[in-house]
Amino acid sequence: MAQTDATVPLRLRWEENTAPALEAAIARDPVVVLPVGSVEQHGRHVPVGCDARSAEAVVLRAAEGLTGREPPVLVLPTLWYGYSPHHMAFRGTVTLQSDTFLRVVQDIVESVLAHGVRRVAIVNGHGGNVSSLDVVASRLGHAWHGRARIAVVTYYQLAAPRLAEFRESGPGGMGHACEFETSVQLALNPGLVRMEAAVSWYPEPPSPRQSTDLFGASLVRSYHDFRDLSPSGTFGDPSLASPAKGETILRICVDELRAFLAEFAGWPMT
Fold first, then answer.
1. What is the pairing mode between strands 149-154 and 119-124?
2. Which of 42, 120, 155, 233 is at 20 to 30 A from 196, Cα to Cα?
3. Beta bridge partners of 13
């Protein structure tokens, strides 16, 4: 007997399902996840697809750990392009303008909401996207209040409470193409990382109230072009990176994201 779309196993990746299968899945009130990254320079040693690849890997691993649970988790195709004008002085960077990026993310999420999805988690892998994604979450949260919930998570911030488990560098050592990001890429894509070309660089922000570290607190915000702070495009110390450290970081981020997605599935609409 032929299987109906309601009985065909649901695939984790949104794009691998048929429209009727997704209709049946949406009736089960799924959590839908949108990984967002960027295509931008990452020093002389890490590929330009670093942020998108990292966000996607964390999302897929976290979602796979929730397979078979109700409600289901569905992962949208990764949005590779983000907001990266501060990297444009370095070859290979491809950026959207801020209004374009906002519109693209908003259109993707609203398309999903229009089909009846009520919970969308945007998982970000690029610091330059944060402020724009906060705007999207606020806009859509207001427009869809009582009908849907939108959450934004920057994957690497999930590791912040457990830095002591893997960090060796001091302040400034984890910034961009650094101990953290290089380790993650060595774990995910070792054949694409050129450690012999890696350059360590601790930039000096213009104010002691600002930080160039992924986990530093910036009390003052302003625009900084990467070429003004680093000749190589690196912030931090990639010499401390290792595949084992990358696996530790990924495990922590995946565990934390998995826990959040399970929690998010139960958020009320108000």
1. parallel
2. 155
3. 75
